[in-house]
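Support request, please re-run this one:
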Amino acid sequence: MPVTRLLYYWFEQVWRKGNMDAVAEVMTPDTLISGAIAALAEPECDYGEVVAALRNLLGPMTVTFTHAMEAADWVAIRLLVRTSKPSDGTPFQITGQLMARVEEGRIAELHSNMDYFQMFEKLGQLPPEALAVCMTGERLK
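Re-run finished. Output below.
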């Protein structure tokens, strides 16, 4: 399976459908994970719990790869996640970038950067324009 297709399968099964069996199918027990949620997804943690926690915050989602580049066993993608606020159905989208290395058909390394700041703004957990406020040196209240 092409590396990009494996990542699409991972997003479709794990993140969109919540198929936690696909985590063990697509990732190795020693997959190296880095990014904003890396501390929540250490090897001794259940990655499925991290997925479930984030999925519980969001409405149904679709994931589109807007850009993808493969080089041997590496892939870099830019993705667009369309979802909604579960409390009132207000739609919103967030973007992210991800790099992964595949070894023997499974994800061996996963480095991701999603716009969680914007996601939490859209969910009402951070005030609007929170990033702009933080960039002035002010504290969020």
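DSSP finds five helices and five strands in the chain. The longest helix spans residues 3-16.
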